[in-house]
Amino acid sequence: MATDAGKIRIWNMALGYVGTRTVAAEDERCEEAVQCSLYWDAARRQALRDYPYNFARRRAWLAETALPEVYAVEWTHAYALPDGWLKVHHLVNAGRRRLIHADAAHERRAPFLLAATDEGAELLLTDAAPALISYTSDVPDTSRFDDLFTGMLARKLAVMIAVPLLKNNTGKVNELAQLYSASLPDARQANASEHKERPAVDSWLAAR
């Protein structure tokens, strides 16, 4: 099978944190490769959900769908969620005109509830119409990862594979979990530096 060099690099970074041997290919017949392959998708999705990394953030207009009767007493609209979504960060009530003051962006955000039908279809329930969401999308392609996320994903994967690889070494497992958690504030700060809010317009000047 073809080897994803970016994936193998992250696997080996994770294995380095754990303290075991490294691997050369996804299909290598060793326990390290088996565990990395087993936990890879879950580690990636969990790491993406832990913080809205810029490369994985998306915006989408939602398509309205039938509102289940059991939710009709609380909400007025139901929307289908986009393919590959992992976490909704906020919903903009696009039907309202832009407010011109310091809290404009936050006042245009509408409450919502994530739910599912009996058939398993995922829904977003809200009173906003139309609905524009900001969300994190799953990004399986390692070539699109930035260096910040690559390092965080290696830490997350290390936490997950440490249990089966190290068996009863709970001390090391806890150490790796703390390493990941402690790194999140630095990741948030670095990622936030790449995003600046639009300056607010003074409402008195705007009215003139």
Structure in words:
There is one protein chain. The protein has 208 residues and is α+β, with helices and mostly antiparallel strands. Helices cover 41% and strands 18% of the residues. It has 6 helices and 7 strands, in the order H-H-E-E-E-E-H-E-E-E-H-H-H. It has helices spanning 5-18, 31-50, 104-107, 147-166, 170-192, 203-207; strands at 57-61, 63-65, 77-80, 85-93, 112-116, 122-126, 131-137. The strands form 2 sheets. Strands 2-3-6-5 form a 4-stranded antiparallel beta sheet, with no helix packed on it. The chain has a 3-stranded antiparallel beta sheet with strand order 1-7-4, covered by helices on one side. A hairpin with a 5-residue loop joins strand 5 (112-116) and strand 6 (122-126). Helix 4 (147-166) runs antiparallel to helix 5 (170-192). The longest helix has 23 residues, at 170-192. The radius of gyration is 21 Å and the shape is elongated. It starts with a helix and ends with a helix. The model is unreliable at 97-107 and 198-208 (pLDDT under 50).
